[in-house]
Amino acid sequence: MKKTLKILVRVLIAVLGLAVVIVIAAALYFNSNIINSEKRGKYKGPDIKEITDKDYTFRDLNRNDELDIYEDARLSLDERANDLLSQMTLDEKIRLLKGSGMKSGIGLGPSDEGVRGAMGTIVPIPRLGIPTLYLSDGPAGLRINPTRKNDDKTYYCTAFPIGTLLASTWNIDLVKNVGDAMGNEVLEYGLDVILGPGANIHRSPLCGRNFEYYSEDPLLSGEIGAAMVNGIESNGVGTSVKHFVANNQETNRNFNDVLISERAFREIYLKGFEIIVKKSQPWTIMSSYNKVNGTYASESPYILTDILRNDWGFEGVVVTDWFGGKNPPAQIHAGNDLLEPGTRRQHNALKKATKNGELSKEDINTSVKRILKLVLNSRKVEFYAYSNDPDLYAHAQVTRHSASEGMVLLKNDGVLPLKGQNNIALFGSTSYDFITGGTGSGDVNEAYSVSLEEGLTNAAFEINEAAKKVFETHRAANKEAFEKPEGTLTAMFTPYTPPEMNPSAKEIGDVTGTADVAIVTIGRNSGEGGDRVKKDDFLLSADEQEMLSTVCETFHASGKKVLVVLNIGGVIETASWKDQPDAILLAWQGGQESGNSVSDILSGKVNPSGRLPMTFPIALEDHGSSANFPMDGIPFSMVTMFLGENDKPADEQIANFDYTKYEEGIYVGYRHFDKNNLDVSYPFGYGLSYTDFDYKNMDIELIDGSIHITVQVENTGKVPGKEVVEIYVSKPNTEIDRPVQELKAFVKTPLLKSGESTEVIMRIPLSDLSYWNEDTSGWRLEEGSYIIHSGSSSRDIRLSQEISF
Ligand code: BGC
């Protein structure tokens, strides 16, 4: 017995010992591979002298007391990068092709090192005086850790409105201005590249990251995206336009294979990126996780070299999405220059491939040179003395103003702006706990956020106490569910969705006595790693429906009005309930000043001028994409991300998980609804104003290969307002299958006073009317006649004219 016990104890000790060894080995592997893949000592900062030689002062980066070509900022970036490249060893080059790991991104490492919370790096080359560059999320504002250990200072950033809201402004100048403020925070917090904007197409209303993206239409996505890039980069910092390309679902995002026709790829999914590249030449583009027709986007020479660089002329750096792709040499060869966040496995794979000739020195030099040009162009290499103190107050004003301009008034039966209704009863948890943006890497760490309750109070409205008490009782009864997820990774991947309040008819009845008007807020949150679903998400939940109906019935019975505020990041069903309230304001998720922005509209301080960048369908199934989309949404798992199955045999592959067939082709969004003559709840481009506009004197002319369009717009209502003029083009007698109409230009007017008119001018290059011809693999412009429509939405066309060429 004693002996057996002894053996047992020994076995136990051996097992425990083995477990400890395994845990330590795993920790070491994880640390050296993923947390910190760069073994080099950190760059110790500039012991770098300034030298003046023949009236020119330069930084002697490699400390050789001479002016090297790469140190001479008067020379072209190309010459300087060539010189720097020629001074680098092969080992230094390979190191530069990948970041240094996730250390800073997950808040590890000493507090004074780097920028806490930055997600990636371009590694330093200390010998040549090249500092570390930092990359961090995007796209609704800079995402870094707001606090640092042993440091009283805070590093909050501004939470700007989500991408979808910015697209809803249809205002290029405004978006550029938002980008300018965002880029200033990137610069002043010592970062070099922000990981945004997001420019994927809203293929399905259920994609969990639609809020980060702009639109179902490539022209709107491209124009808004280019404005954002130009605004951010005007600060001397870079952007990373993501996720290139066809990353339209989050389910199995790391392995999903998008099966798509070349025409749909070119006309819809690539087009927005093409516009951005041509109009703003971003510093970087982030390749997406998914495959396209069998090849990972980050490993596709066709996408990253033939299309992106050869066809469009992209000159910058392509960065992987975090841990994206499988084969590092294939990625570099394809034109994916920088692997982020960088693992030791990638480093070893590149080294091996260089040795055995699988990866050519030429491929390495091409990618390294692109990275060097970015580095030499950065403010970091000038040792810009960032303040860590951007003007957050000024940026709060930018976000407040831009958010109110992108909110869309969907319905208004004479109730808005509020006049004389002072006491407001707020229903819906999100009224008190407003959602400022989505979750995941797109979530910003802002210093504060203004809820709807606070915004209305700031605007001198009274918040109905009885209604508030109902909410507070509900919150107290669900205390845990109202605690926001904490910890970098948990907060990133857990959307905060506390339960909706469910007031009884009596409680609502008690409120009507003291309230002048009711607001019911419907909230939705989603984010990276998961797609949305139909039940209780696209559709209102039973609690929400009941709350809305009872509030409407009870308030209407006492002659009082009800407004609905939609605090959502993506499309929801509206057709079944929109008749019940008197007004509906689509507030989106408007960043940290959201509550003030909504109040500015409700009070009439701002006249709404947002327009839908996507269609609100009657039923989810009406969307062309619904036949091929993961409608049941499978939540994100880290295990799948790192260890997911890559090459499953064809007969084991699951539709909409392992692959997704884009069978609807080019018929995405309004292109599909128009072609199939489907009624919609709210059409693409739709949005109401507190005033009316008249369209007159449309004139079109063909000048130097472009159609010039002028339209006169007059504010015929009583209050000042802005109008969006949308130009759609149709091709009668087309030889091919074409959409009924496509958005080809738009413009937002300045604020027009009552009775004031303006002439808006737009230009459409004829080449923009081309379609992708699959027989010849090229763009083709059909000759003949086209109809140019100017409208206030895709289904509210005011003037049309024919042009032939
Ligand atoms: C996301 C990217 C993000 C990156 C770094 C990835 O999981 O897909 O959008 O920029 O992480 O946080």
Description:
This protein is an alpha/beta fold and 805 residues long. Helices cover 31% and strands 19% of the residues. It has 23 helices and 31 strands. A 6-stranded mixed β-sheet has the order 3-4-7-8-10-13. The chain has a 6-stranded mixed β-sheet with strand order 14-19-18-17-15-16, with helices on both faces. A 4-stranded mixed β-sheet has the order 12-11-9-21, with no helix packed on it. The protein is globular, with a radius of gyration of 28 Å. The chain starts with a helix and ends with a strand. The model has no long low-confidence stretch (mean pLDDT 94). The protein binds beta-D-glucopyranose (BGC). The site of beta-D-glucopyranose has 8 residues, from loops.
Kindly summarize this structure in a few lines.
With 805 residues, the protein is an alpha/beta fold.
Instruction: Please tell me how large the radius of gyration is.
Output: 28 Å
- Write down the oligomeric state: single chain
Bound molecules: beta-D-glucopyranose
> How do the strands of the widest beta sheet line up side by side?
3-4-7-8-10-13
Helical coverage, percent range: 25-40%
Structural class: alpha/beta
Strand content: 15-25%
Sheet with the most strands, sense and barrel status: 6 strands, mixed
Which of globular, elongated, flat, extended, rod-shaped describes the shape? Answer: globular
Q: Give the rounded overall mean pLDDT.
A: 94
Number of helices: 23
In total, the number of strands is 31
Spans of at least 5 consecutive residues with low confidence: none
Distance between the termini: 100 Å
